[in-house]
Amino acid sequence: MEKLLRFLVLFFVLVLTSSCGVIECVDSQFERESVAIDGESGFEVVFSNGESKFHSIKCEKYYDSMCAERGNSWRTREVGKSGEYKRSYMPVSDKSGIAFELELPNCEKLIKLNSQIQMEDISITWNRNESKTEKTELGQVTSWLGKRYNYVSTKSGVHSFKSGGYRDVPLEIIELEFTLKLNGTVVE
User: Fold this and answer.
1) Residue 30 lies in a domain
2) What is the pLDDT of residue 70?
3) Which PROSITE patterns does the UniProt record give (predicted)?
4) Is residue 148 part of a domain?
5) pLDDT tens for residues 22-81?
6) Alpha helices by DSSP H, 22-181
7) pLDDT at 66
8) CA-to-CA distance for 115 and 123, rounded, in angstroms?
9) Residue 13, pLDDT score
10) Is there a domain that residue 154 lies in?
11) Dmax of the chain from CA atoms?
12) How many domains in the chain?
């Protein structure tokens, strides 16, 4: 009888703690304070007309938990952002005055690269907050109307970024003239 009781207890413990997410659900009920990470990353964009803009990024560790099988863990994010992949942006424009945004690296990348980023780590976005929602026979579909431009090269202080150029998406190249500094050091 005692062996049967031990078996039943072990069986129920295994059922309740494996694959059903009970541990994750209980764990997610306990809020944990974010932990500040020492240091700050100061980004400065200097334009050819001498104008400059500055943005500072401070990072923190936070406990990312939810009642799900993916598990709960400590992650890194920018202070004030809701998650690890949320980023900061700085406004830039091309020679014709079209407004773009310089997408700064997230905290995870800054920490991983020890703030030694290169222009390849930078991208440009256009129309970032625009989307449209349509009703289809399958339900509601929301599409992002913006574009992301990835770094290509720099020549005489002018940076080239491209979007598209694959399958049926036409290649579009933009050129922006600015100098990007991180903590006073020029990013190349």
Assistant:
1) no
2) 74
3) PROKAR_LIPOPROTEIN (PS51257)
4) yes
5) 777 777 788 889 999 999 999 999 998 999 999 999 999 999 888 777 778 899 999 999
6) 22-28, 107-112
7) 81
8) 16
9) 61
10) yes
11) 86
12) 1
